[in-house]
C-alpha cells in the first residue's frame, strides 16, 4: 500500500526519507512523493543519506 510520506509521523526518526528500492531520498520540503512502507528508510541528515549511497530527488 502506498501512502504520502509527509503524513507519516517522524517521532524518533530522521526527517529525511529515503526509498530503499530507488535509492532516492526526499527532504521535508519535498512533499509530492509516494513510497511503500517496506521501502521507507529515515536519515538524520543529507550527508547520512549520501554516505549510504542515496541520491537527492529532483522533484
What is the residue-averaged pLDDT? 82
Tell me the Rg in angstroms: 10 Å
* N-to-C order of helices and strands: EEEEEHE
Distance between the termini: 22 Å
Number of strands: 6
Tell me the number of helical segments per DSSP (H or I, 4 or more residues long).
1
Largest sheet: 4 strands, mixed
Percentage beta strand: 25-35%
Structural class: mainly beta
The stretches of 5 or more residues where confidence is low (pLDDT under 50) are 5-12
Keywords:
mainly beta, 1 helix, 4-stranded mixed beta sheet, globular, 32% strand, two-stranded antiparallel ribbon, 59 residues, single chain
Draw up the topology in text.
Layout (H helix, E strand, L loop, with lengths): L1 E3 L11 E4 L4 E3 L7 E3 L3 E4 L2 H6 L3 E2 L3
Parallel strand pairs: 3-6
Antiparallel strand pairs: 1-4, 2-3, 2-5
Explain what you see.
- The chain is mainly beta.
- It contains 1 helix and 6 strands; from the N terminus they run βββββαβ.
- A 4-stranded mixed β-sheet has the order 5-2-3-6. The protein has a two-stranded antiparallel sheet with strand order 1-4.
- The longest helix has 6 residues, at 46-51.
- Residues 5-12 have low confidence and may be disordered.
Amino acid at each position: 500500500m502506498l501512502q504520502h510520506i509527509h503524513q507519516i509521523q517522524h517521532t524518533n526518526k530522521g526527517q529525511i526519507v529515503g526509498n530503499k528500492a530507488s535509492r532516492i531520498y526526499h527532504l521535508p520540503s519535498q512533499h509530492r512523493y509516494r513510497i511503500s512502507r517496506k521501502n521507507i528508510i529515515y536519515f538524520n541528515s543529507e550527508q547520512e543519506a549520501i554516505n549510504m549511497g542515496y541520491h537527492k530527488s529532483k522533484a
